[in-house]
Amino acid sequence: MTTAENSPAAPATLPPGVELVTEANRVRDLNPTSVAVLGLVLAVISQLFGWWSVGAVVLVSLVIAGAAGRLGQFLRAWGSTVLLLSAVIVALQGLFIGGPTVLASAWILDVTLEGVERGVTFAARILGVGTPLVLAVQLSTRRRVMLELERRRVPPKATYVVVAALNLIPEMRKQMDAILDAQRARGVETDANWFVRTRAFVPTLVPLILSSILSVEEKALALQSRGFTLPGARTSLYAVVDTRRDRTLRAVLWGLLLVAVVGRIVLWVL
After folding, report:
1. Which segment of 8-12, 67-71, 124-128, 160-164 scores lowest on mean pLDDT?
2. Which of 14, 83, 111, 179 is the most exposed place for a label (fewest CB within 10 A)?
3. Separation of alpha carbons 122 and 174, rounded Å
4. In the UniProt record, does the keyword Transmembrane occur (predicted)?
């Protein structure tokens, strides 16, 4: 992330001394509200026309992630969350939903065609909704989301709750890595097979939970020292802007969503 004071993209109304937060990429420089609308519209459209709309939304998400220069990060996040969850759902539905057509058997478990079909249908809905959400997370940084919420006069406490929720998993992952590094420094094996990793993971839960609880007090003190609870108008040295391009894009997206919904209704009637 970069900041550009008085850059060509900065509006003339930007107050003196305030720096525009940019990402040096036209896609990632979209206003966070535009990114949220993009994710919402793609998620809704994916649910309207069956499999082909899910495939189209996944393809569009891949293209947008590539244009944003985040294709690798998007694929890693998408594969470890949405795709993995979809595969697990298909497997569980195939194993535990009964039916007359048995595809495979192992011990007391039968994989049925009816269960697999139900799982695939459910997984398609998750792919359609989850893929645009992962894309939206990859296109906007937490800092830009926070600045956009402040620009839209969202109460500071609500803004903090949103940003804290977005920071929760990265912070816990960082703490987990620090705990595992400390264990390795003490000679504890943590990088062998899955059984060794599982055995090393369980003892890290207690210090991880305790450190997370203690960090709450530190954050509260840091917020108070910065006047978080004081009344009055807020000012910021950094800003994000809502350009004409963003407003045009949102209008196009809402229009596309309206056309898709009307088209779905017409197909139902016909």
Report:
1. 8-12
2. 14
3. 33
4. yes
| Phi (first) and psi of residue 103, to 5 degrees | -85, -35
User: Residue 105 in 3-state DSSP?
Assistant: strand
- In the 8-state DSSP scheme, what is residue 25? S
Which class for 191: exposed (0-12), middle (13-18), buried (19 or more C-beta within 10 A)?
exposed
Instruction: Determine the Cα angle at 33 with ends 126 and 143, to 5°.
Output: 95
Token pair 């969202």 is found at: 154
DSSP tag of 191: S
- Identify whether the C-beta of residue 128 lies closer than 8 Å to the C-beta of residue 47: yes
pTM score over 0.90: no
**Residue that the structure tokens 């709309």 belong to:** 53
Alpha-carbon gap, residue 242 to 33, rounded angstroms:
9
Contacts of 256 (CB under 8 A, 6+ apart): 41, 45
Q: How many CB atoms lie within 10 A of CB 56?
A: 15
